Amino acid sequence: MAANSTLLHLIDVHKHYTRGSETVRVIRGVDFQVSEGEFVGLIGPSGSGKSTLLNLIAGLDRPTKGQLFLDGVDIAKLSEAEVSQWRVHHVGFIFQFYHLIPVLSAYENVELPLLQFGLSARRRRRQVLTALKLVGLNHRLSHRPGQMSGGEQQRVGIARALVTDPSIIVADEPTGDLDGHTSEEILDLLDLLQNRLEKTIILVTHDPRAASRAARLIRLEDGRLVAGDESTIGAAFPGWQGTLT
Amino acid sequence: MRTLCTLIIKNLSRNRVRTTLTALAVIVFTMVYTVVGSTTSLVNRLVSSTSSNTRLVVVNRWITPSELPSRYIDQVTRVRNVQDWTIWHYYFGFLDESKRSDRFGLGIATRIDNLQAMHPGLEELDPASLQAIKHDKIGALVGLHMMDAMKWKVGQRFTLFSATHPGKDLEFHIVGVVPAGKWGSNFFFREDYFQQGTGDDETVNVIWLRVGNEETGRQIAATVEQMFANSREEVKVETEAASAARIAGKTESILAIVNMVVLVLLIDMLVVISNSISISTRERRTEMAVLKVLGFSPNFIIVMVVSEALIVGTLSGGLGAALAFGLSALNEADQLPYTIAFLRMFPVPVSFVPRGMFLGALAAFMGSIIPAWTARGIKVTEVFSDIA
Ligand SMILES: Nc1ncnc2c1ncn2[C@@H]1O[C@H](COP(=O)(O)OP(=O)(O)OP(=O)(O)O)[C@@H](O)[C@H]1O
Ligand SMILES: [Mg+2]
User: Fold this and answer.
1) pLDDT (tens digit, 9 = 90+) per residue, B225-249?
2) Is the domain of B285 the same as that of B360?
3) Can you say whether residue B359 is alpha, beta or left, with left for phi > 0 and alpha for psi between -120 and 50 degrees?
4) Which residues constitute the domain of residue B343?
5) What sign results for the dihedral spanned by CA atoms A49, A55, A56, A60?
6) ipTM score here?
7) Which chain A positions have a beta carbon within 8 Å of B381's beta carbon?
């Protein structure tokens, strides 16, 4: 399923924060690669730096040290404005708390990232409707976030991440705020994105059920990848396999 | 573009109470500003207009209201380079027997043959009414406001119960209406009727002279003042503009206070706008971070925040000025239950409406630029690490 070519390549990535006089080393030398079309789960205990790493990959933050290639571009070297432009075209972001704009309808929320593309109104409309249809919400176009359930809001969030046709979709605990059944629906959707649209997905999660959807798991502990390729759900969450079925 | 506009407009409707209060602050400010500003602008207009710089007013130097011996008329008007002249006799009192203080009227007895030439502001007087008063000794041309206040009709007669000339109450026949504006609250009548009616041929209140230009005006003023220097009845001669400026100067300290109030209001308005915008951007930190994640530039955030403020500022600034203008216009047309004398003296010109919009916009811009700048600098990762 995974194509051969490398989409994402991290080389010795570090991220430090300074709080007053103290330096917090959140990411401490991470190397890994993700191939095009892969579905990678990023797991680890709370505070291990998962969100920080994801933000680096999405270009929301810059590494203190190291190289971060996405589609052959070292995004650590781009200016802030360039990264921002680059992100619109290459990264779709899905949040735990959906983060839809409350005053805009589902349709308008999905349309938002497209506004910077200079597309014709018709073309834009087609793309928005396609994305909303894909997540099964084409009957909720004019609903506002407040009028939708958590699951529905997250679907809108996914449609928004998807509408620009990015090469990689990153999701930070997208099911963290949803109940079991709704989580499964959202995860099914991610599966669909990966299978049908061949999107590369990086999913940060605490939830074994979510992690089990990933083809490969990367485990962070204390800002480092845990030694050895922990590519199976069993190794990542001991005892999980027993409850899988 | 439509979605962006929707976003900005919908943002304003999020907290209707706050938006409304902000708008109200701006509306009240621009109303006050407009009324105050129009007084200053009227005084300035008067001071700078040529017609008021080529008209000299000759008054008693020491007595207010002015009173001069009638024999001065001849001497003053014979001075070289005086092109035209007229006189005023004040005649005022109550407009009906009720003697209510709001029925007090000022009549000006003057020459009718050059009435318009010597009274800028009477250009729109109906020529027929001018003809009428020439043939009707007791005729009066009554100001529109006075007509409205007394509910008089042309053709009707009225008697003025004189306060200046007790026992000499004169009857008048209304032959025409003086348009609203500078003279809208007075009435004009013939000086020969005044003399006959009051028996007063000894004194005159004001002598007006018209001259060719400001320079000859200055010379004539000096000559005339010189003529009566050291006499019992010294005169003061100044241009109408200077007289307006002097009256304005007397009220200068009041205007200074008013200007202070305006300044305080302006600062208030800035604080109100700035505060309201700050609160609303702080509430939306996460949303702005999301917009940044979606690839919107920091400058877009600035444009968004400033536009929101500009919409409120411009609209309510325009509205405030429009309300002041409307009030002044209604007041002028006697459509209000109570007339506001102050507004009548200083009517609000319509040009203040765009000015109010501009002022509101300016305040909105200044009040929102700092919060917008702060919002621009929101760091996405910090916002999200607060939440997660
Ligand atoms: N902007 C920042 N400034 C300072 N410290 C930060 C910042 N962002 C994150 N950290 C610190 O970095 C560490 C890792 O944070 P991060 O959010 O990446 O963890 P995580 O693995 O996503 O945790 P969780 O599973 O709870 O979401 C934490 O100790 C956090 O306090
Ligand atoms: Mg996290």
Assistant:
1) 998 888 888 888 888 777 766 666 6
2) yes
3) alpha
4) 2-47+248-387
5) negative
6) 0.87
7) 52, 55, 60-61
